[in-house]
Amino acid sequence: MRTRLVDLLDARKGHFQLESGHHGDLWLDLDALFLRPQGLQQFVGELANRLSTGHIRIQAICGPLTGGAFLAQMIAAALGVEFYYAERIAPQQPLPHDRLFSVAYRVPAALRGRIRGKNVVVVDDVVNAGSAIRATLADLRACGATPLEIGALLTLGDAASQLAAENNIPLKSLTHLTSGLWTPAACPLCAEGVPLEDLRPTP
Fold first, then answer.
1. What is the DSSP string of 31-84?
2. Using a CB cutoff of 8 Å and minimum separation of 24, what contacts does 106-115 make?
């Protein structure tokens, strides 16, 4: 399954600034992942099956815009539950280059009351440092919802499992790839003088 899924992604090695503020050595172009939704159906079905095995009833699926929300909508349809999304809110002013997890994700105002009190699974297409999932979990709790699990098609490195442990909730993913992830101060690629590419979305 990993080979079939990775074949759908445009992966390249290098030295990249991630949304979380970390530096990494692997970049996945996820924009093309949802161009042909029918190609994802088998993966959506498998992840939905893995998410629906808990003893507490899932009432909603939530994903951060963009890719996570697209996946969340497909999984919500497969499970017959409600779909929610969290919008990306970037800082309004420049921050220090070594600031981590500065981007927020928030459920829109019109949906915050609707999600209150519900058992929610948070999903994203790929989880690396976990910036989007981390912020979405925090906002769901601020809305009064209860996060049950984290789901992903693919996880990179160890950050996703650490995030799940910190939040005391299970992590369900279809496959995993190894990758480097460092704070800017500890990045070996910076020390070697490898040029840094900043491919993060613009505010």
1. TTTTSSGGGGHHHHHHHHHHHTTSSSPP-EEEEETTHHHHHHHHHHHHHT-EEE
2. 106/139, 107/62, 107/139, 107/140, 107/143, 111/84, 112/143, 114/82, 114/84, 115/60, 115/62, 115/82, 115/84, 115/140, 115/143, 115/144, 115/145
Q: pLDDT tens across 140-166, in order?
A: 999 999 999 999 999 999 999 999 999
Q: Residues 74-125: pLDDT tens digits?
A: 999 999 999 999 999 987 766 566 688 989 999 999 999 999 999 999 999 9
Tokens of 191: 């020390």
Residue type at 125? D
**32-41 confidence digits (pLDDT tens):** 788 888 888 9
Say how far apart CA 4 and CA 14 lie, in whole Å.
23
Token pair in block for residue 202: 């613009």
CATH number of 39-179: 3.40.50.2020
